[in-house]
């Protein structure tokens, strides 16, 4: 078990800066997801932790030891690649045994360790096969087996589930959570899938444009997004963001005015952005008029696309079974406790003073 | 009664194909037949298609009365050493061209091919003068170096396209698993590269084995001559060509290649494929 720390890390490729001012402290035994759209620097971060890329500036340490110049093999980490990177010419057993072989573990100990890993991952009947003879899910498990066989301090996982079909993915997600609970090792998990990050991680590092946007628990990231990017990236469908003006106790956009409790916000009068999640937009009563443009029925809920009088589009999420028809004009309300305000810039910071917004206690497993 | 057109097509196609095969194979067939005919039957008109009596006397004379075996040994040493050089340098070169990102990488790769664009006649005289200057003229080593220079560019490009097909993740995984860079190369890259190495080795071996011009210019002492020039100067003079001996020599020269081809043919065609895709 080990802490992993990135201190003020920067990474440039030529004139292109992939990462800047990256500060992340991962606690021992924690499951951390690095989440962001492609090109946000999350994979580069992971590769730097692995020692496959070297930081241009800053300090990376694992278990208290600065590892900036330490070769990948000497960091006591294991990595699962998106492509699995199984050695095609070796059998499953040889693949799993390879990290042990490279560390000079005697043959009988090696065999025992491989056996143990194979049992854990239900790979025993496959040990003599070649990777090409396995299904995607089986290859995935072999890659995991190779990672956990020598019991490293830290596991690094680079989008390990992205090549699996949806059903297998949700199964493997549960398996990984279970595995983390059993091994209790530090895990760093790169993904662009917010569902994976939300369901698996103790804490999520949301990244965008080479910068860390927020590093917090799934609940905090969802309920108290640090800025407009996190607010729009986390949650499906994503948070409504309405540009307008704040003056006194009201937020105004065109003909729409929304009363606000100013004590909840550290915002000054002027242009700002109001954020409301679709589930906090209720249809039926209220003082804002909107027209229904589209109703999508997912079975257990309806995603309703609304247009305000000035054409602004909004999404609302209501329980299935409501009778709503396209073209109908309805009154809507924004739940006052669920309103966020952001500075008007593209990555504008959240301006709420609260630490509340229906906080759910941190999950631990 | 008319044949269905698909049948006709098949027949025409077969006819054309087999005619081509016959045209290509005939010299080989004639070479073998001539090498087995007794002297008296050689120039008979009309020619006999199959020898009336089969004799191995030409082979026997070649092996016992001429320096054929020495030429053969020279050729084996020449082609083998060249192949080892080319594969070794080509593999390491291709690895660095694919894996390491450095300024001018593409330019370098193109420049390497540049020598390939020049006709060998242009290079051969400067090369000869250089060999004389460094005291290597008239040695097998000078030929090995010369053959290496003209086989390496192609080998480099061939191996590069094979190398590009090996995912970088494999090597990264080996590094994370505790291998050194050399260890990862040996454990993971080499086994994946093996088909590429074999086909490159074959191309190089054949190129070096059959090469004539460099051998003619760079080496003029009989003791280090390879088969191509050795056999030529031995059996072909201004007044006479020893046809039967020449054919026997040709058969024995082709034999190693045919054997190697038979065993490694599938690798070779894979090499053609890789070269074709990457161009």
How does this structure look, described?
The complex is a heterodimer of chains A (365) and B (279). Mean pLDDT of chain A is 90; it is low at 357-365. In chain A, helix 2 packs across helix 3. Chain A has 365 residues and is an alpha+beta fold. Helices cover 23% and strands 34% of the residues of chain A. With 279 residues, chain B is mainly α. Chain B has two domains: 5-55, no CATH class; 65-278, Orthogonal Bundle (MetI-like fold). Chain B has helices at residues 5-36, 57-65, 68-99, 105-117, 120-133, 140-164, 168-176, 181-210, 213-218, 227-235, 243-278. In chain B, helix 6 (140-164) packs across helix 8 (181-210). The N and C termini of chain B lie far apart (49 Å). Chain A binds chain B through residues 47, 50-52, 71-74, 77-79, 81-83, 85, 87-89, 98-99, 102-103, 146, and chain B through 167, 169-170, 172-180, 183, 187-188, 191-192.
- Rough outline of chain B: globular
Q: What's the SSE pattern of chain B? A: HHHHHHHHHHH
What structural class do helix, strand and pairing data of chain A support? alpha+beta
**Approximate strand percentage of chain B:** under 5%
- Extract low-pLDDT stretches of chain B: 274-279
CATH fold field value of the largest domain in chain A: Rossmann fold
**So what's the CATH class of the largest domain in chain A?**
Alpha Beta
Per DSSP E runs of 2 or more residues, the count of β-strands of chain B stands at 0
Return the average pLDDT of chain B rounded to an integer: 86
Question: Which second-level CATH architecture of the largest domain in chain A applies?
Answer: 3-Layer(aba) Sandwich
Please give the CATH class of the largest domain in chain B: Mainly Alpha
Largest interface, with Cβ-Cβ < 8 Å?
Answer: A-B, 23 and 17 residues
Helicity level of chain A? 10-25%
Q: What is the strand arrangement across the widest sheet of chain A?
A: 6-7-8-3-9-10
